[in-house]
Write a structure and sequence with these properties.
The structure is a single chain. The chain starts with 6 loop residues before the first helix and ends with a strand. With 97 residues, the chain is of the alpha+beta class.
Length: 97
């Protein structure tokens, strides 16, 4: 699957790329998060994390410098009682280790 490059995604990728360039001892963790209404068989959180990881690698981050994982609905940031709230929980986070 090809990711859709948005201005927001480009902005955050550029931040991550600049950070890892200036801090070569650090590792980026890409985490795909899921909402409660997501169909587990589709596994969007895994695919999303892998796509962002691939984008980082294509843009010069060595594979050993970027890892990925997934989190389920236990890590919600919004109420999952509505589709809009559930959509906020379907996200990708980039953290530094």
């Amino acid at each position: 699957a090809k990711p859709k490059m948005t201005d927001e995604l480009r902005y955050y990728l550029d931040l991550a790329l600049a950070y890892i360039k200036d801090n070569p001892a650090k590792i980026l963790m890409v985490t795909g998060c899921t909402g409660t209404q997501e169909n587990p068989s589709l596994n969007f959180s895994k695919k999303s994390a892998q796509i962002v990881r691939r984008l980082l690698r294509v843009n010069g981050v060595r594979s050993r410098k970027v890892k990925w994982n997934i989190k389920d609905e236990a890590n919600e940031i919004s109420s999952n009682e509505t589709e809009a709230g559930d959509a906020k929980d379907r996200r990708v986070e980039i953290t530094i280790e």
